[in-house]
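Entry: Carboxypeptidase
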Amino acid sequence: MCSLLWSSIVMCVALQLLQLGIVHPSPSHIRITHLPGQPQVQFQQFSGYVNVDDRNHQALFFYFAEAEKDAASKPLVLWLNGGPGCSSLGVGAFSENGPFRPKGEGLVRNQFSWNREANMLYLETPIGVGFSYSSDTSAYEGVNDKITARDNLVFLKNWFIKFPEYRNRSLFIVGESYAGHYVPQLAELMLQFNKKEKLFNLKGIALGNPVLEFATDFNSRAEFFWSHGLISDTTYKVFTSVCNYSRYVREYYNGAVSPVCSSVMSQVSTETSRFVDKYDVTLDVCLSSVFSQTKVLNPQQVTETIDVCVEDETVNYLNRKDVQSALHARLVGVQRWSACSNVLDYELRDLEIPTITVVGNLVLEGIPVLVYSGDQDSVIPLTGSRTLVHKLAKMLGLKTTVPYRVWFEKQQVGGWTQVYGDILSFATIRGASHEAPFSQPERSLVLFKSFLEGRPMPQEF
């Protein structure tokens, strides 16, 4: 029962709204005091919800790790994982480039965490992913790129209300896989919003093994398989002439795979083998399911079982009640947190919308762009990404400012790079998978640092 005093009524109503989930706590209430099993650290962490639709009670969940040192002088980086429908918390933060990784009953430090160089904001998007939710489950149906970009923009606008000290901070957006759609489309909306009200201090975007143009990205898979010895000359020929991969994926999602494509894919699957991980062709297949964000990009019309022989520690950790309590997280409409959403119905035909043109528009607006590729990924191979970046540079009339060359991490070759017009860059990460910061954390951190500083990749060791 509320007191009749006006101040008491206001406080009481605010408390009731908070309990109903209509408003969310201030930053002081979303600070993480200590994650279960967490080693001692000096930086601050926050997590919680930001409403993106008050009327329908839709909220996106975030995890924010401030920089290890000098947080006030470091840029803000928004990280997005792909899928579509996979978690930036579980995949990005706790498995790739965040400050901790689950081990046993606790957490261990990631010595190559990206919050060494930036304040890292991880967003579970769209609604229905991870801890993000809608009180109306019909909102999970027909979600598409346009809806996702709009919600992500609203999230950032409202997040700055909670964290006003970051409003004018240099902002970068980085993501991988299907974030090749999320990131450019969000950046484009931010620039449009800035023309009405200057809010976003966007300084650049980086895209890792991204989906940028359906046919080029997917059809480069055949050459990658063949050049790495995974398929025969005969199979390579039919995979590039009789039925290429983009045609197969299109037929698969239209619900009618032709007999000829079924035959070709059966042969490809037999030769590449279920014992080779398509996201890292040099890695043994013994992988955790948390690294399944590319399952949408790699549909299995041919029955194939995956040998998951590593306990999925991230999934176990994030499903603990004490962990969810420490994160200020809750499960709404689902029984368990999962790395990739089981309730989201995404419009998969959006795969065919090219976002390389959006990337070009960003470059014309003066936004630096880096496209990087783990060179052992066959799902979105480096050859397709390199081709697309080169064509874009040519179309925009950008001259090569850094010729194709190696870059170094310590005393080893870290990968190869090329820069166009000092604004559009391509780089590979040697020995890296689709999730480059997971498989090559130290080399990925070198690339990330160079990107933030606007410098070419290290030419000397």
